Amino acid sequence: MERPTLSSNLRRGSRALGPPMAALAGLAGCCAVVLWADPTTPGGALPVCPTKALLGLTCPACGGLRMVYSLLHADVPAALHYNALGVPAAVLFVWGMLTWTLTRLRGRPVAGWQHQRWTSPAFAVVLLAWFVVRNLPFAPFVELRV
After folding, report:
1. 3-state SS track over the chain
2. Is residue 48 a contact partner of residue 119, using CB atoms and an 8 Å limit?
3. What is the CA radius of gyration of the chain?
């Protein structure tokens, strides 16, 4: 069996990193659009939430663009105000991207939260609870609407 050379390792590494780098480039592009459009300014270039516009309900993702804008400006309290569930979801997203990248680099699975049996049901329960709580019409829950 041949021993891998430096050039073969570099080729394998560049092929392995291609998809994560493409995803990172797409994410950077989306963040650039959010920074440019400034969703915190009313009547901006970005559309309003269709659920809110059509049904008048605050969906679990409402305030997500403003949350991302606030996170890009390192304003965590504002990000939590716009979407308190979105901030931990962003952390889980970064963690998932890191485990995906490590899996591709190592060539073998790296355990992550997204591969657990409980992940999908837990996300469904949390999203449904967040949807209900954000739309309760009495204090202190009305403060969660954006």
Report:
1. CCCCCHHHHHHHHHHHHHHHHHHHHHHHHHHHHHHHHCCCCCCCCCCCCHHHHHHCCCCCCCCHHHHHHHHHCCCHHHHHHHCCCHHHHHHHHHHHHHHHHHHHHHCCCCCCHHHCCCHHHHHHHHHHHHHHHHCCCCCCHHHHCC
2. no
3. 20
Structure tokens that stand for 141 in this block: 């829950």
Q: What are the b/e assignments for 43-76, b being 16+ CB within 10 Å?
A: eeeeeebeeeeeeeebbbbbbbbbbbbbbeeeee
Rounded distance, CA 38 to CA 65, Å? 9
Map tokens 């009313």 to a residue: 42
* pLDDT string in tens for the chain (146-residue length): 566 554 555 566 678 888 999 999 999 999 999 999 999 888 888 888 888 889 988 999 999 999 999 999 999 999 999 999 999 999 999 999 999 999 988 888 888 888 889 999 999 999 999 999 999 998 888 888 88
Cis-peptide into 50, omega within 30 deg: no
